[in-house]
Amino acid sequence: MDTLSSTEDQAPPRKKRDDDHHRTNEGKTIILFGLLLTDLVFNSTLEYDEWDSYPTMFGIQVFIEICTFAVVFLMLCETYPFRVGLLDALLAEFRSIFWVHPLYVCWSLLVGIYRIFLGRQVSKYSGAGFRRLPNMWDTSDPAGETYTYLSHTHKLLAAIYYFINIRAAVRLGDGVYYAREQWVKLYHRTGGSRHELRKLLTKRHDEFEDDVGVERER
């Protein structure tokens, strides 16, 4: 009787802790969307408007991208599987986060460094003239042609980057990642198989996103 009573007493605090982690991630989601929106603004202006302080603005953009990864990582830290060390199961669902962020940051650095330093070394425009519009888009210039390819690839990669981050934020809105009982139930149903667990989670996410869509329509 004492053991049963003790278990019942512990259940509400545990649920409260799970809810606290869930609410904390909701706040981080707002921050994440703000950072992604800021990065989108930079991508829409830095290469198409005249910026005398482009190196500074470029540095700020890279800093924002690093902060974005930090926020997503902290969101993952709030989940139950991360807190108890079930990292394999968690990474099976969010592995794309860990390749898209380094790739996007590195490509952003490549585009910025090429515009600031490398491009003008092979450009027909003297000095910092390559950085001026429309010189850096001049495909008759070897530097301009290379920069155009780099920039277009960067924009395509940015679309993938935004999609993966937004999808991760939406999926982390599912309470299964914070409730011990639900996660343990899923884990036992799959026998710990990462492949089967991912299939179950994908099915659950599809249902969860459909429910969110229905609620918004109401």
UniProtKB/TrEMBL annotation:
<feature type="region of interest" description="Disordered">
    <location>
        <begin position="1"/>
        <end position="22"/>
    </location>
</feature>
<dbReference type="Pfam" id="PF14935">
    <property type="entry name" value="TMEM138"/>
</dbReference>
<feature type="transmembrane region" description="Helical">
    <location>
        <begin position="58"/>
        <end position="76"/>
    </location>
</feature>
<keyword id="KW-1133">Transmembrane helix</keyword>
<dbReference type="InterPro" id="IPR024133">
    <property type="entry name" value="TM_138"/>
</dbReference>
<protein>
    <recommendedName>
        <fullName>Transmembrane protein 138</fullName>
    </recommendedName>
</protein>
<feature type="transmembrane region" description="Helical">
    <location>
        <begin position="96"/>
        <end position="117"/>
    </location>
</feature>
<keyword id="KW-0812">Transmembrane</keyword>
<keyword id="KW-0472">Membrane</keyword>
